[in-house]
What we know:
It is built from 6 helices and 4 strands. The protein is of the alpha+beta class. The longest helix has 20 residues, at 57-76. The radius of gyration is 22 Å and the shape is extended. InterPro entries: Dimeric_a/b-barrel.
Amino acid sequence: MKNLLLLCLFLVSPFLVLSQNSNYDKNLADSLGADDYGMKSYTLVILKTGGGNIEDKARVDSLFRGHMENIGRLAEAGELIVAGPLGKNSNDYRGIYIFDDPDKGKVAELLQTDPAIKADLLAYNIYNWYGSAALPVYLETHSKIEKIKP
């Protein structure tokens, strides 16, 4: 049975040709760190409600202003390429980040620059994620369609 399977694979394999992309741009792929599938590794962070309980509304507002400023700073530095809130859910998930770095340790250090995380208003889970290597270049287009900056 095993030999029959191998024989079938041997006979069929010349007809299994991977399709080459006629739009492929090697220089662009290399500059974005893309593999042969146009993909690469990132770090995904899911933000969730933290255990901190601050009663002072002005302090909470200040921490979340700092949170938004930190997002802008990390995006400007090219570290953070996706950030956004999630709708209400039963898991207390608040938002996501995608960092342009597969090193979860480095990302954990970057997360400590967020005042809302440092104050435990937000907590997080960190995951490795594999996605399109073109993800970082969408920010340039976004800046052209963003009428009001948060």
